[in-house]
Amino acid sequence: MILLLNSAVMPNEGMYTLKRITEATFIKELRDAATSDNLQSFIGYPKTAQLIEQITGIEVEVSREQATLTPGDTMLIVKLRQRVANPADKETLQLTTDDFEFFRCEWQPLDAGET
Description:
The chain is an alpha/beta fold. The protein contains two helices and five strands, in the order ββαβαββ. It has one domain: 3-Layer(aba) Sandwich (Rossmann fold). It has a five-stranded mixed beta sheet, with helices on one face.
């Protein structure tokens, strides 16, 4: 499963490999995941979801649920380059893709596949 997040988090114990990717790579991988029905959104802010929809053409669900990983999962992350002092302000900002960084994060559990 591809998990779409708006922050780089480590929701499970394990080993993480975080790699910065280009916006174009992010768009391609997100579209591929959506096409194969292999995508779950954990984007917590409507403005971020709208921005992702604008650049990918994919409807992104807003979800404040806690992400959990299972073996084989990958995270695609779109995160603000700078932290917003008041999270409520995120909905009033005029954001563009230049305000974001894009990452792919691979995860492996510590104990030979046990979670």
